[in-house]
Amino acid sequence: MAKRISKILIAALILGYVLFAALLVAGMLIARQSIVPKLSSSQSQADWNAWRAEAARQDGTHGPVQRAVPKSPEPPMLVLLRDYFPACVLGLLLPLSALYAVIAWMICGIMRQQDEPNIPRLGKHGL
């Protein structure tokens, strides 16, 4: 019975991970499809150029902080989602996969501990 439960649990955790990863990638693709066209517009480019010009005027003489002028001629979010999208997905998927693996490992350990009746547990009197 315990082996059957653990096989079901492992199958459920694997299926959960596949669904989790698919939702994450789909969410990133949906966000990319809505953000990239908006940031590719001429109005967005004009706003970015105006912000760069304003940052160039803030040289520290009229305020407490000197701004550095961004070197990119395009909005950084556009460049990130258009040119570096696979790296963004991988950079999000790797740490979240590691977190999922740790949580799954803990769940398996908890379930395995409940299946073994001879393991001493901390009770009212301790060990």
Question: What report would you give on this structure?
Answer:
The protein starts with a helix and ends in a 12-residue tail after the last helix. It has one domain (17-115). 2% of the residues are buried. The protein is built from four helices and no strands. Helix 1 (2-39) crosses helix 3 and helix 1 (2-39) packs antiparallel against helix 4 (85-115). The chain has helices at 2-39, 42-57, 76-83, 85-115. The chain is 73% helix and 0% strand. The chain is mainly α.
Secondary structure elements and their pairing?
Blueprint: H1 2-39, H2 42-57, H3 76-83, H4 85-115
Helix pairs in contact: 1-3, 1-4
Short recap of the structure:
The protein is an all-alpha fold and 127 residues long. It is 73% helix and 0% strand. It has one domain (17-115).
